[in-house]
Amino acid sequence: MSIWAGFMPRSTTAGVIPAILIIARGFVKELSIFVDESGDFGKYNENAPFYIVSFVFHEQNNPIQNQINILNNSLEELGLKNHTIHTAPLIRREKNYKTFDISIRRKIFHKLFCFTKHVNISHASLIVEKSPNTNSMDITKQLSKQLKFLINEHLEYFTQFDNIIIYYDNGQYQITNILVAIFNTLFSIECEFRQVLPANYKLFQTTDLICTLTLIKSKLEQGKKLTNSEQMFFGSVGKLRKTYLKYFEKIQLVQRIKSKTFIHN
User: Fold this and answer.
1) pLDDT at 255 exceeding the cut of 80
2) Quick check: 9 and 256 in contact, CB under 8 A?
3) How would you classify the pairing of strands 163-168 and 30-38?
4) Given pLDDT bands bounded at 50, 70 and 90, which one contains residue 23?
5) Which pLDDT score is estimated for 252?
6) Of all helices (H) and strands (E), which one includes residue 195?
7) Phi, psi values for residue 242, rounded to 5°
């Protein structure tokens, strides 16, 4: 089992749902969870041996609209109004980024990273390392087991919320089924599931960023080298670790809970 979990102090909203819900019985504490994945349930590929599911958690009682505005304005200055950032193609210079030179792509990446640092979120990733004998049922079983462990390990944190909303783009039905099954089994409250468009939520784009960095980190820990596109984009493993990975390693969720460094408003 492999779980990489981190926490960024000070909680957030997605910038879409009202920050505080007020009903007859008072204030409602609401947690939004964004989910993204990297990999597939197909046959083993030695060039893509990992299946990763990343989660971003944010508490709705603290707004992030100012940070959203800053990110939008900074992207607009680059001529990218209403742009949706997709981290992996950005690094590899694929899809919408084919005509972008490396300096612009690095600026886009760093702007999203800075946004992620300045909003109040926690994050965690589930990691399955596939083998030639791994099948789709094995991946489903391992992800379900890891997700159960993650929730039960931090149950005190999760159960303080009155509402939990899970946001996923339904990119892979297996993940949708796992999320519905696990969350509705482990929580007494009824969790709500919403299908999202990445363009509508900056925190979904943040989840994509975390998923991509988790994949790169997992490959490095396995002893693999950066790909040519990753090497060109980040410069070196040392720069990647110092600038990005080291930050996430310092803010692991389990360490934040043990040290009681959560900040709740």
Assistant:
1) no
2) yes
3) parallel
4) very low
5) 60
6) strand 192-195
7) -65, -40
Structure tokens at 16: 């879409």
Q: Where are the domains of the chain?
A: 2-259
Looking up tokens 């950032």 gives: 85
pTM value is 0.87
Non-local CB neighbours of 2 within 8 Å, separated by 6+ positions: 126, 127, 128, 129, 146, 218
The rounded distance, in Å, linking the Cα atoms of 228 and 94 is 14
How far CA 55 is from CA of 26, 127, 225, in Å, comes to: 28, 12, 26
Cα gap 263→175, rounded to integer Å? 30
Element (H, E) at 5: strand 2-7
pLDDT tens for each residue of 56-103:
999 898 899 999 999 999 999 999 999 999 999 999 999 999 999 999
**β-strand pairing of 2-7 with 121-129:** antiparallel
Amino acid sitting at position 139: I
**Distance in angstroms (rounded) separating the CA atoms of residues 97 and 93:** 5
